[in-house]
Amino acid sequence: MSPFSCVGVIGKRRDPQIGAGLARVCSILRGLGCTVLVERHEALPAGLGVEIVDRGGLAARAGLAVILGGDGTLLDAGRSLAAAGIPLLGINLGRLGFMADVPPDRLDEALGAVVAGHYEAEPRLILEARLVRAGQPPRLLTAVNDVVLRNQASIRMLEFETWMNEQFISSHRADGMIVASPTGSTAYALSGGGPLLHPSLAAIVLVPICPHTLSDRPIVVPADAQLRLVARGVERTQASVTLDGQIAEVLEPGDSVEIRRAAYPLTLIHPPGYDYFGILRDKLRWGRGPHAPAERV
Description:
The protein has 6 helices and 19 strands. By secondary structure, it is of the alpha+beta class.
């Protein structure tokens, strides 16, 4: 793999405690001979000898973006940097860390290896959503994890239809629908009873949220399919569509949401020794290993 000479750094927003972490990352990168671009942050200490840039400037110049925070920070960065082809390395300061998988105690080792070109690059399928409203041009939005149709009013269920490539799938009465990428299959979709999809799969999963009919189960479809969600009776409810749990758009009567695989992937960078199933075992509290002794009952 190619080494990196110009590295961008993005810290968790609205976190006044992130300054020390940003300073440490910048110091390590400068010691490795990198040009360091840091996204403007109110907690960034002065005198670090780095360039302060906005997100667009970072996307235009950096060969790698180091994300300091949790999975939410990485999702936010991924939506804005994937189209520019900037790979992301996540330093986990959050809770789970499915995507931001480098722990702080391995920071020096991981950055040294990655900057020198010793890493694994993993392309991840992401989603493009088109909000279609009569009389207006479609709004194009990007999601790394999921696009969710949901009801903002908890006392009513939504009524909606699902379509694939103009082929009718079903009518639903539920609290909503999660449309998730393989990356998003370990997020909201998992808590909704959906299956785990390996990140290398070219597939999308649809997971109904608390369906009224118990036979309304999750379904996995090809990634090249075009999906469409059409909300019915939204004048009696408060339907909205959310992307990665971070962007929300309220739906009006007649609106539909078209979802497909984005034309570009999001590339994640992992240090040597990355083990996807090891992360699942750790985060989901699976078995301890192939040779672990049996637990006593």
